[in-house]
Please model this.
Amino acid sequence: MIVVTGATGQLGRLVIHNLLKVVPPQNIIAAVRTPAHAADLAALGVQIREADYDRPGTLAEAFKGAEKVLLISSSEVGKRAPQHKAAIDAAKKAGVKLLAYTSLLHADRSPLALAKEHQETEAYLKASGLPLVLLRNGWYTENYTHSIAPALEFGVFLGSAGEGRIASAARADFAEAAAAVLTKPHQAGKVYELSGDDSYTLAEFAAEISRQSGKTVAYQDLPEAGYQAALVKAGLPEGFAALLADSDTGASKGGLFDESRTLSGLIGRPTTPFAKLVAKALEG
Model:
């Protein structure tokens, strides 16, 4: 029995669809905050159980009978550590034989502010005594393709990553890797640093947009505070804008680069080239 938390999120849904290729649907539990949002998964035969990180009792019920749990990191930055601890406690109480956690690329030494809560979670998980496997995910290429439309509108792609190289991959690649780990034997104790096979600077990313669209898009590198202010002006909440700007600055320090090709080795194929996702975004 395999539990996937955050199963109605973008990553969680993809993981479940990958699991369904090799695991009977009745052996998959979609643990979700709002079961009504998981009707599509229920229609596939997947078990739906309520699981709210902020209500530990629901986690205990959701994990009953589970052999493996994929703990997808919470989307609520700032609340992640206590939420993850509640899930880990519930998994331990349920006697789970393997807990896989989606952490951050090189979380133990990452310059990104995002790393702090991942470090706390990893430490708590190790102290719990649960058999664990860490999926240290790099950046989703989709984090940047979302900015293609405004870049085309204004002719400029903004960022603060400098010349930092970003080895991103498609969200689907990371989902496939998670499903692989959940269905392979002897995973306890492993740490996977997961990133894309190819890498780029944001100037190269902007150049790819120009090449494919036929419209000139220049990369404008801003100081972190300037990029944050631009994101707020574009309508992003202050906290989220600060997070994105900090992540770009972290990328300038090498925080989003890795060339181990661990991800492609795990999924048995090359990761999705960023140019392919640029093309997909341009198609609308």
